[in-house]
Amino acid sequence: MTPDPDCLFCKIVAGDIPAEVVHQSERTVAFRDINPQAPLHVLVVPRAHEPNAAASAQADAAMFAEIATTARSVATAEGYNDYRLVFNTGAGVGQTVFHTHCHLLAGRPMTWPPG
User: Fold this and answer.
1) Which of 2, 4, 90, 93 is the most exposed place for a label (fewest CB within 10 A)?
2) Would you say residue 51 lies in a domain?
3) Is 99 marked active-site?
4) What is the value of pTM for the model shown?
């Protein structure tokens, strides 16, 4: 899918909007969340624009799997073995940027159920 010119994350991926990028690969970009909810809070996004996790998984399963391996690499590089990955799919569960993204959270106790 081509980049969406109105998408915040497409603009970050393109380098048009600054972000604290912590990892890049051919298919993903990981950057620190501007409103962190844990000592480590990084967003992992695919370079390809899809509106949500379900759409990304259907469009390119290998790329979707790379989101998880990128998250693992970032967590390990930051010194964390325990971490949480969160995908919000749809406005009703809190998705506010409609470009697939995974929240990587670590460094504090996490409760269950979340939210």
Assistant:
1) 2
2) yes
3) no
4) 0.95
